[in-house]
Design brief:
This protein has 3 helices and 5 strands; from the N terminus they run E-E-E-H-E-H-E-H. It has about 130 residues and is α/β, with parallel strands linked by helices. The chain has one domain: Dinitrogenase iron-molybdenum cofactor biosynthesis domain (Nucleotidyltransferase, domain 5, 2-Layer Sandwich). Strands 3-2-1-4-5 form a 5-stranded mixed β-sheet, with helices on both faces. The longest helix has 11 residues.
């Protein structure tokens, strides 16, 4: 099964990006083999609807789950509609994509119960 993780760079050792829709990269990792591919987020510079576009992109790549720091209302609804599970990276920690994979495997990531940010949170925002 495929998991999408938001990232600031195109490798497993890059820091994760806490923004879902405006993350620089979306890294798709195969849970079983740990094979992965990094994709520049096609929604990063969208004038609007970045969360929805990023959700569609990861769904099209075959992901069943997403790990990120925050999910705005539109992204949350789009991911939920696509039946993608969401997991939240620990706030305030400078973790790499690889570290998030290990936390996920250890069952240490929480699922959000709703959107974690207000609308347009990721626009112009850096890592928290």
């Amino acid at each position: 099964m495929q998991i999408a993780i938001t990232s600031t760079g195109a490798s497993l050792d890059a820091p994760y990006d806490p923004r879902f829709g405006r993350a620089a990269y979306l890294i798709i990792v195969d849970e079983g083999t740990e094979a992965w591919e990094a994709y520049a987020n096609p929604a990063v510079n969208a004038s609007g609807g970045a969360g929805i576009q990023a959700a569609q992109f990861v769904a099209d790549k075959g992901a069943w789950a997403v790990i990120s720091g925050d999910f705005g209302p539109n992204a949350y609804r789009a991911l939920e509609a696509a039946n993608l599970a969401m997991f939240i990276a620990p706030a305030g920690e400078a973790l790499t994509v690889r570290q998030l994979i290990h936390l996920y495997r250890g069952g240490k990531l929480q699922k959000p119960t709703g959107p974690t940010q207000r609308r347009h949170y990721g626009m112009g925002q850096g890592a928290r």
